[in-house]
Amino acid sequence: AKLQDVEILQNIQFRNTLRQNLCVSMLREGFHRSFAEFFSLLERWRASREAAGPGSALWQQRPLEKHPRKLEPLREHLTRAESAERAGSYVEVYENYLALARFFSEPEDRWIRYHFYELSLLSAGKIKMDSGKREAEANGHMGEVYLEQGPLAREHYEVFYNLAVGRLWQDESGNTHHSRACMGLCRIYTLLAQRQLQTKDYRTAIQILTKAYDMAKEGTHTQTHVSMRTLAYLLSLSDPYQFLSTFAEIATGLDDAAGLGKAYKAIAKSLEMCAYATPRPSHIYTHHIAYFKFLKKTCPDFLNRSSVCVCVYARMCMQGQYDRGSDYFSQAYELACSLGSVPALRKAQACVGVARAHALLRPYSAAVVTGGPRSLLALIRWKEVREDGFVDSSGMWVNYSDNSEKGSKTLIK
Amino acid sequence: MSATINPLANPKGGKKLCELCQKPAYLQCTKCRVTYYCDVAHQQADWNSIHNKACELLILIRSPAPLHSWQTDRDHHHMQTQKRLEQLMELSHAESKRRVSEGKYEEALPAAQLSLRCAMDVYGPNAVEHVPAYLLLAEANMGLGFLSQAEGYLSKAQWTTMKTLGCSQVILHQLHRTLGRLYTATGRYRSALLHFANDIFHASEEFGLNSVVSAGGYFLMANVFVKEEKPDIAISLYSQVTSIWHMHLSKMVEHYSQRGTQGEQHFDEAQLAEVDQMLNVMLEAQQQGVNTHQSAMLSHSLGQSALLSHSLAMFWFLCRDHSKALDFGRKAAEFSRQCEEQNSLAESIQSLIQEVEKHITIQQIPTIQQ
């Protein structure tokens, strides 16, 4: 009789669908919860496919029940989790669910991953012996999940943080749970603050951003540009000088060249914006210079984009210091020449022209005002040749390099 | 009622066979004159089972076709016969089913046989429509203890379903459940589990995952695991069945209290007996658990007992046996107090007890007045 049963079994396996075979094989061993899980997952897929309707992307996909490579491990882990649950070892249950969540890593299986992260959180709550490590982990995973869906992850990350604070738990890659929690919270707070910014609720936004900054500081992870970005928001929102020191601290403590560049740029830009309200040209000037020097040090393709910016920024700081301003303009012009980009060149030309004209204006008007034979002579000579130089009243000969000629001429035209 | 016939006097080629055992017949039903029996016992059995209802229908079906000269007339007659056959098949099937559920297997057999014969006449020799009749025959035989006959019928049924593509889930579910019960009875537990697994799968496909139908499958499966001495699996299955039934009954009670329908029958006789037996078996198992298990399992057992008693109370309430409902309701309240966890459960138990008491007082008032 036994042989007959085996034969029937083999025949049935070829006749029936994979789904039925797997379901029956689970049920035979009494794994009814695994069966329910498995069955409801497939049903959910089917329902969402029906809801999407024919012609949608989901409709075109290969049905989940025709992926033996996905279904076999699913059954394997589910049954293992259930037998572990029967035996009362929830650690194993948790690990099996986590393994499943990691297994379904493809984007179209995202909902399965979420589902198993939820289950692992549930089973982690039942583990009593590890002082909450797995619960913390599970909360961290849930946080990530919700972060992908939207910033609903705050609660999970806060639980994660509270459980992980003061512990030395590490994950596989060697990061501590604590720093991960901090990073996650920082990201969430930034997201939340962005929402607040959209609704123009600046006060709460700043509060949340301060929290985010605290988290970033506490996490001490190498990706400090997160805190940079946070600070940039702070700067753009409130009084920039308040945060200037912190900012410079981070910037100097960094090896990250791109991050440093961003830092200087952010400072310069924010200062520039504030310059209209509280004119402190010297501050702006120094930061622009710092930014420019930094640009000079770093790679030339970074200059490609930035030389033009330098031109524009320098216009601000040249108030009153035309000669030095035009000096930087000529450097920008040189850069534009070496890069060979026509729009940058034109812009630089125009800027140089403006600067030169401004620089010329002062001795010229001085000469007109003072009068006297020497200045008259100088005026006449200048008018005759229309040179790019001018002898001012002190008798100094103001002259500029040849390559800036075109600039002034374009301006005169 | 019966007239004697002599087989030697039959016309050539026309053999008269007993309705039940297919042996040469010596008796004829005088009412319809188309049914024959080998002896009085068989005639009596058939009469008790189905013939008293089928007698008149059989006259129309079995009497030879009158001579029609037109093709259309002949077709019409054929159609009519087919229709009557189907009618008879349904009638005998229903009758046999009723007898099986009442436990009168002896009386169910002739009806089931008639149903099968009609199905063969209507649908030809190998049709999936025979399966219900086979299942009934198998069940009746199992009830009588004729396991080998039952297995024969079931393997016929299985063969038919195997040959039919796209067989309906309900039929497959019933077939596998009967097969599982047969193998449980014969002690082949592995095969029984395989069939119950198939049964639950098909039932879930048709009725949904947490339906009462699949709960029946889980229960039978749990019984097999008990016999295989794997109590942990059995307990987990029992708790699944308990939760399904508890949910189902709670919904029914809620429905009942909202609509307040009177006179509506929630369960038929067979279901009533089955559910009662099932819930009681599980309650006993859990109470054994309460007595024997260590403290870790104790609260689980108590919780399950509370759920089961509550289910039973709701069940008897729906069946309008209010004194039983009250008994079980008090039991449930006791259990839920002991396990001290499920607050919502305790509340619903209390409200049920109140409802039941109200009904009891309403019933008592007329008797006092009389």
UniProtKB/TrEMBL annotation, chain A:
What keywords is this UniProt entry annotated with?
Cytoplasm, Repeat, TPR repeat
Q: Which domain of life is it from?
A: Eukaryota
Give the location in the cell. Cytoplasm
A Gene Ontology cellular-component term: cytoplasm
Q: Does the keyword Cytoplasm apply?
A: yes
Instruction: Show the InterPro entries listed in the entry.
Output: Bac_ResReg_Asp_Phosphatase (IPR051476)
Q: Name one GO biological process term.
A: cilium movement
Task: List, alphabetically, the PANTHER family matched.
Answer: TETRATRICOPEPTIDE REPEAT PROTEIN 29 (PTHR46630:SF1)
Q: What is this protein called?
A: Tetratricopeptide repeat domain 29
Q: Which organism is it from?
A: Electrophorus electricus
Q: Which gene encodes it?
A: TTC29
UniProtKB/TrEMBL annotation, chain B:
Superkingdom of the source? Eukaryota
Matching entries from InterPro entries are given as: TPR-like_helical_dom_sf, Zinc_finger_MYND_domain, Znf_MYND
Annotated membrane-spanning segments are none
User: What is any Pfam family matched here?
Assistant: zf-MYND
Q: What is this protein called?
A: MYND-type domain-containing protein
Residue stretches making up the MYND-type domain: 18-55
UniProt source species: Electrophorus electricus (Electric eel)
Quote the gene name from the UniProt entry. ZMYND12
Signal sequence span is: none
Q: Which keywords does the record carry? A: Metal-binding, Zinc, Zinc-finger
Q: Which PROSITE patterns match?
A: ZF_MYND_1, ZF_MYND_2
GO MF annotations, alphabetized: zinc ion binding
